[in-house]
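ok posting inputs for the zinc ion job
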Amino acid sequence: MARLIVLGSAAAVSNAQHDNTHFVLQGDHSEAVLVDCSSNPLVKLPRFDIHPDTLTHMILTHFHPDHISGVPIMMMQMWITGRKTPLHIYGLHHCLHRVKLVMDACQWDTWPNFFPVIFHTLPERPDTPVLDTEEFDISAWPTKHFIPTIGLRIAVKSSGKVVAYSCDTEPIPNIVSLAHSAELLIHEASGTGFGHSSAAQAGEVAAQAGAKHLVLIHYDVRQEDPAPLIAEAQTTFAGPVARANDFDVFEI
Ligand SMILES: [Zn+2]
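and the output
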């Protein structure tokens, strides 16, 4: 059974219980795909029996610190612990170009015997193939955020299920398309305003897409009571709604 493991659930402001939003996909064949790298994910993987060497793919949705700030320290830890396995990194040019600049600023060219890193630059257009592994067939859609950003549609081969991830976005038709008939829509709920969505808007997208389950993520953790978020989404979506917490595991 493939799993989606939540490593962080907060919007840009995090706290001790909620890291910034990122997650890992683990398939039946031990392969793991990291989606964003908000802090060092390697410290969280042992509790799920995921060996860092099985983390062979990383998708970066956009170059905002709450999504990519863990890249240098993760890379350094992989290097120091003797990784030899190649790491494939996927994203838009806007993001990957800046990730390379950050790594250059860290002078990673002076780190001897560094493992191979392969960058895959994605075009910014709907239904762009990202990667196709033994377990996951993943495609990307541009979202509407402050900077070029992608949301993801993840087809799970062993179960036939589809998981959709809105990433950071205002409600736009692209998000309905990427979530079409999804078993699980993981949607941000930062609140209304430019470049983001509220829980009620997440519910509207889930309803329009015909998604079966809605999970709210990337929410404001300064509001301590989560119940209003779920209730708000239920005003626009009749299906089951949950709020993601760090270390939640979804069988997909
Ligand atoms: Zn964000």
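notes: The mean pLDDT is 96. The first helix runs from residue 65 to 68.
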